[in-house]
Amino acid sequence: MKAIARSFVYWPGLDDEIVNFVKDCRHCASVAWCPPKAEPESWHPTTAPWQRVHADYAGPLDGEFFLLVIDAHIKWPEIFPTSKTTSSATIWLMRKLFANKGMPELLMTDNGSQFKSAQFDDFCCKNGIRHTTTAPYYPQSNGQAERFVYTVKRAMKKIQEGEGSIDEALNDFLLT
Predict the structure, then answer these.
(1) Torsion angles phi and psi, residue 165, rounded to 5
(2) pTM listed for this prediction
(3) Phi, psi (deg, nearest 5) at residue 148
(4) Angle between the 87-101 and 118-126 helix axes, to the nearest 10 degrees?
(5) Partner of 53 for a Cys bridge, out of 19, 58, 104, 175, CB 3.0 to 4.6 A?
(6) pLDDT tens across 76-93, in order?
(7) CB distance 55 to 145 below 8 Å
(8) Which residues contact residue 59 at a Cβ distance below 8 angstroms, ignoring those fewer than 6 apart?
(9) Is 122 left (phi over 0), alpha (psi -120 to 50) or beta?
(10) What is the DSSP letter of 33?
(11) How far apart, in whole angstroms, are the C-alpha atoms of residue 23 and residue 113?
């Protein structure tokens, strides 16, 4: 549309006027290929540690999975190697973590079956944890955990290219 208009006339701001005209056109919007996405909303900032924690699983890496839990306020990571990602294993690991750090007010996870089970809901309810899951097929809403999963996987692969075990690689990663 812009190219056709420019082949006949030109004035400063022509492209912007065409864009605005099309943007305001109801008929154009109804047949557009991709409707505009809603602007993402950021999480409200936390004021203290353990108000909101984000959790997700990474792996498998050499047959092991890793439960990652990140505090939203101070960005403190906790990583737990595990061979199982069941609800029971997840609850056991979180109980161990929360016994040391305290119960969070809000726990944000994806929609993994271990986080959606009645057993996990019961664990959260009994411990006064408000559990929220991401929108289905939209993992970006748990961006804190998703980004950390990516970072851990990348770092572990880089470190493991040298020599050493997963535990050594994990400890090297956490030290840095």
Answers:
(1) -90, 170
(2) 0.67
(3) -70, -40
(4) 20
(5) 104
(6) 888 888 899 899 999 999
(7) yes
(8) 65, 66, 153
(9) alpha
(10) S
(11) 42
